[in-house]
UniProtKB/TrEMBL annotation:
Record has Oxidoreductase as a keyword: yes
Organism in which the protein naturally occurs: Tardiphaga alba
Keyword annotations: FAD, Flavoprotein, Oxidoreductase
Name of protein: Xanthine dehydrogenase family protein subunit M
Superkingdom of source: Bacteria
Domain FAD-binding PCMH-type: 1-178
Family matches, as InterPro entries: CO_DH_flav_C, CO_DH_flav_C_dom_sf, Diverse_Substr_Oxidored, FAD-bd_PCMH, FAD-bd_PCMH-like_sf, FAD-bd_PCMH_sub1, FAD-bd_PCMH_sub2, Mopterin_DH_FAD-bd
Length: 285
């Protein structure tokens, strides 16, 4: 199918982006980043934006750099940019590992990290990474700029705290201490499909005991989030198969899983139990 007709605008600066959004968002204008979610939706006529503000020519939006305590990820940084570790240490390795679970290679060459956050699919790997690690998001509009913590940004299925005239200019991921362990596991029916449930865990070990556990779950509820009940189960304990089972159980009991055409809420709860345990096993390897 073909999209409905639209006008494409090609700003060259961030100021031009926010000015175009202020003018065209009220007339159903939208940002076009990698187009890997928006274009298929337009082709199916599920969205008919009259104006597309194509940010791909804006200088500097492909910036990917360490700024103090953060890795800053500009609005045009593609999923594929993370295939090789972008920085030394656990954060670079984690991003490289997770990036290969997103869709298929051609999609990863076009789709963007920030586009995934703005699109806010509950199964998005980057939403899960951002929620688990505690990302902060730099949002700009003609009214100024603001920093939005990820747990305020993700509101529900494809729903975020972005106002219609706001542009997600940059995501900021906190750097991880060098001794951080991470584990990731996702379940999808076929390789490249959206995950039906996914878990990302990070923790550190001090005197053989887990500290600073982060347990994030995606794909099960309407948006990715940390699960405090599973983290409380882990903190202060020595890693063991029995502990990982207990953390999986805590996560499964804590979530309120979605029921949809793919599967039931009960099955998703079972998946949460399994992906949490397997992510913890991965972290220990
Ligand atoms: P676009 O498609 O350009 O835009 C998506 C939406 O976000 C639009 O509403 C747009 O206006 C808005 N937007 C984009 N950037 C910004 C910004 N900076 N500020 C404000 N609004 C913005 N994703 C996964 O996470 N995991 C998967 O397993 C996965 N599998 C896929 C399989 C297929 C077959 C396809 C087609 C896509 C899949 N995707 C998957 C989606 C893909 O990762 C997209 O790239 C991503 O969701 C959106 O990024 P994008 O840059 O392509 O955004």
């Amino acid at each position: 199918m073909k999209p409905a007709s639209f006008t494409r605008h090609v700003p060259r600066t961030v100021d031009e982006v926010v000015n175009a959004l202020a003018e065209y968002a009220p007339q159903d204008g939208r940002i076009l980043a990698g187009g890997q979610s928006l274009v298929p939706i337009m082709a199916f006529r599920m969205a008919r934006p009259a104006h597309l503000i194509d940010i791909n020519e804006v200088e500097g939006l492909d910036r990917l750099a360490v700024d103090g305590e953060y890795l800053s990820i500009g609005a045009c940084v593609r999923h594929g940019a993370f295939h090789k570790p972008v920085i030394d240490g656990p954060l670079g390795t984690l991003l490289a590992y997770v990036s290969r679970h997103i869709a298929h290679y051609p999609i990863r060459m076009r789709g963007t990290f920030c586009g995934s956050l703005a699109h806010a699919d509950p199964s998005s790997e980057w939403c899960l990474v951002s929620a688990t690690l505690g990302a902060e998001l730099l949002v700009k509009s003609v009214r100024g700029e603001r920093i939005v913590p990820i747990d305020e940004f993700l509101e529900g299925i494809m729903t975020t705290a972005l106002q219609e005239d706001e542009f997600l200019a940059e995501a900021r991921l906190p750097l991880l201490p060098a001794d951080t362990k991470f584990g990731f596991y996702e379940f999808s029916r076929r390789a490249g499909d959206f995950a039906m449930s996914a878990a990302l865990v990070t923790y550190r070990l001090v005197d053989g005991k887990i500290i600073d556990a982060h347990v994030g779950i995606g794909g099960a509820e309407d948006h990715a989030r940390r699960i405090a009940e599973a983290e409380d189960t882990l903190n202060g304990q020595a890693p063991s198969p029995r502990l990982f089972v207990a953390a999986g159980e805590a996560a499964a009991l804590a979530v309120d899983p979605m029921e949809d055409i793919q599967t039931t809420a009960d099955y998703r709860r079972d998946l949460v139990r399994a992906v949490t345990r397997r992510a913890l096993e991965h972290a220990q390897q």
